[in-house]
Amino acid sequence: MSAPIPEPKIFPCKQSKELAQNIANAFGIPLGKIITSTYSDGEFQPSFEESVRGSRVFIIGSTFPNSDHLMEMLLMLDAAKRASARHITAVLPYFGWARQDRKDKPRVPIAAKLVAKMLETAGATRIITMDLHADQIQGFFEKPVDHLFASTIFLPYLKSLNLDNLTIASPDMGGSKRAYAYSKALESDVVICYKQRAKANVISHMELIGDVQGKNVVLVDDMVDTAGTLAKAADLMMERGALSVRAICTHPILSGNAYERIENSKLEELIVTDSIPLRQSSPKIRVLTCANLFADVMLSVNANKSISSKFLM
Q1: How far is residue 191 CA from its own chain's centroid?
Q2: Which of 81, 264, 276, 284 falls 20 to 30 Å from 244 in CA-CA distance?
Q3: CATH number for 301
């Protein structure tokens, strides 16, 4: 008689421990035991403090910089592989280094492809992530990728606001597909911002394509980093006669002076998920948890059930 298959196990990377705990609570099992030893020079070693032999292991961690977060995920994947885990799923609520998804000038890396290969080489047999910066990053993997959309979280919240004359806006041309998907679900108009950058994170010029006069505008993007684009777009739209401007951004990177820019902008509200923990609180920032979405998908993956109902876009 064959031995029973062990129960699934969930382990957190330290940068996503609170989110991992919420996911584990929704999944219905406790977090697995793990300790991390750190050497004096900063090198660290994670260690599973319970057997994972034959188990389906979920390792949860967003890989936003600094690079230690990615390195921790890689080390934990390698440890699970060498401990004979049956399936090893890397759960990356935020897939970092994704903005380098192509060569936009000579002699530069394609970091997203490199990270995909590193995750697979380390031992990941499946990837679960949310709102990739570019959909085609899924094709960088040879292993199955479950690409979730935060629209399943944001759309119910937007509908609860009961905003009249709602208009969805994309902060750049690249996000137009996402904006159109939201507008279709909400039966609203769409406007697009056209921006030119002097260099990374620095906007030299922005124009608005479409009419926002008398509209309640919701900007939609996959991430907010320095918040320069959002602040500039919100100010431009209010100048053009918008009644209010909100923003929905899945991943709150919020680096540099982002918090100050949001506070000083004409944005009424910034709605984000907890894929990345906030460095500080702000009265203008509302956080919606993605824990239930990931737990539901992980339960379906564990039971070999379809997850197509989780995709609204």
Answers
A1: 24
A2: 276
A3: 3.40.50.2020
Q: How confident is the model over 214-242, as pLDDT tens digits?
A: 999 999 999 999 999 899 899 999 999 99
What value does the mean pLDDT take over residues 173-191?
91
Q: What per-residue confidence (pLDDT) applies to 174?
A: 79
Q: For every residue of the chain, which 3-state class applies, written as one string?
A: CCCCCCCCEEEECHHHHHHHHHHHHHHCCCECCEEEEECCCCCEEEEECCCCCCCEEEEECCCCCCCHHHHHHHHHHHHHHHCCCCEEEEEECCCCCCCCCCCCCCCCCCHHHHHHHHHHHHCCCEEEEECCCCHHHHHHCCCCEEEECCHHHHHHHHHHHCCCCEEEEECCHHHHHHHHHHHHHHCCEEEEEEEEEEECCEEEEEEEECCCCCCEEEEEEEEECCCHHHHHHHHHHHHCCCCEEEEEEEEECCCCCHHHHHHHCCCCEEEEECCCCCCCCCCCEEEECCHHHHHHHHHHHHCCCCCHHHCCC
Q: Is residue 166 part of a domain?
A: yes
Is 1 inside any structural domain?
no
Q: Are 211 and 273 within one domain? A: yes
Overall number of domains in the chain? 2
Q: Is residue 4 part of a domain?
A: no
Name the residue among 283, 212, 285, 211 with its Cα closest to residue 244: 212
The verdict on 172 and 74 lying in the same domain is: no
Q: pLDDT tens for residues 5-16? A: 678 999 999 999
Whether 247 is in a domain gets the answer yes
Range of the domain at 115: 9-149+292-308
Domain match, 73 and 185 both: no
Catalytic residues: 195
pTM, two decimal places: 0.93
* Residues 140 and 254 grouped into a single domain: no
- Judge if 276 and 197 occupy the same domain: yes
